[in-house]
Amino acid sequence: MAAKEKKSFVLRIDGATYDALERWAADEFRSVNGQMEWIVAKALKEAGRVPKGKDKKDEKK
C-alpha cells in the first residue's frame, strides 16, 4: 500500500449542512473535500485515535 493512498467514499448530508461546510471551507481557503479531511483529522487527534505515523503531521489551524 502506498503511503499517500487515499480512499474515497460517498457522504450524504443535507443541503444546509453542505452549505455551511462550503462557507467554512471558503473562509479557510480550502476545498470542501479538504475541509472535511481537516475536520476528520482534527477530530481523530482530539479523540486520541490518530493512526500511527500521522500524529506529527502539521495542521493548518
From TrEMBL:
Q: Name one GO biological process term.
A: regulation of DNA-templated transcription
Protein name (Swiss-Prot/TrEMBL): DNA-binding protein
Q: Which organism is it from?
A: Chitinophaga cymbidii
